[in-house]
Amino acid sequence: MAVPVPRDVQEFLDGYPAVSDDPSATANLEFYSNHARCRPDNRTIDEIHEQWFGDYDKLEYKHGFIQWLFPIREYGMNYESQPLQTHEIASMRADPKIMERILDSYRLMLDFYGMQLVAPDTGLLARVGPPRQFASRYRNLVRSSHNNLRISRILKCLSEMGLEHLNAGFLLHVLNEQSEFGELYSRGLVSSMERWWANCIRNDQEREWIRNIIDRVRHSEGDYVFTRQQYETALESRANTGELGLPEGL
């Protein structure tokens, strides 16, 4: 039985048809150009990247920054931030420095979640640091459910910014951790992954492939295990053929 797609995710998939662009709104572009400070934290994007990386308490208990680091065309809980505008998307995607800053924001949050970006071109992730470090971060992700909403925002933002290939790397890493190692497995994370995260991909083939592999892990009578080898192979297949996939028998 298919899991219903939440309304906010369906609006994202449809490209926000009811949302109009405001040419006068430029807060996200100015922030990512390092010309303006976010509110209420009063930091530039470069200051956040330099000063907050590894500051897990700050990243856990502050809540206003996530709307600035990962703007989307929806209102969040921080009303001092601004929804992303379509004209901002075009300008940000055309600026290599801004695109590198977006990747740095992703790396910042991955580290907070106990992960690291191994290959930006494929989206391949790995655990971060020694076992004690990633285990502590994984426990926090399981325990702190507000991060589930943050991840939905991150995935939507990456898609808007032309970095949607990273989403599969994240989703399949989490699935591998759950399936092969029993990590990151809780009712909240499973629900968020199946209802929200796995749908935050506009590429129809990629979204359906990921949903099918999740369904196979969850409901296979043969106790199907999605391994690290399969994770890496699926991303390699996309790099070589343009589509996620696994060879017969793997």
Distance between the termini: 25 Å
Number of domains: 1
The share of residues in extended strands comes to under 5%
Low-confidence spans: pLDDT under 50, at least 5 residues? none
Spell the H/E element sequence: HHHHHHHEEHHHHHH
GO molecular function: opioid growth factor receptor activity
Domain Opioid growth factor receptor (OGFr) conserved: 23-227
InterPro entries: OGF_rcpt, OGFr
Pfam family, one: OGFr_N
List the helices and strands and how they pair.
Elements: H1 7-13, H2 27-32, H3 45-52, H4 56-61, H5 66-69, H6 86-93, H7 96-112, E1 115-119, E2 124-127, H8 131-143, H9 146-160, H10 165-181, H11 187-195, H12 204-219, H13 228-241
Antiparallel strand pairs: 1-2
Key terms:
single chain, 250 residues, mainly alpha, 13 helices, globular, opioid growth factor receptor activity, OGF_rcpt, Opioid growth factor receptor (OGFr) conserved domain-containing protein, OGFr
Question: How would you describe the overall organization of this protein?
Answer:
This protein is mostly helical. It has one domain. Helix content is 56%, strand content 4%. A hairpin with a 4-residue loop joins strand 1 (115-119) and strand 2 (124-127). Helix 3 (45-52) runs parallel beside helix 7 and helix 10 packs parallel to helix 12 (204-219). The two termini are 25 Å apart. The model has no long low-confidence stretch (mean pLDDT 96). Belongs to the opioid growth factor receptor family. One of its GO terms (cellular component) is membrane. It comes from Panaeolus cyanescens.
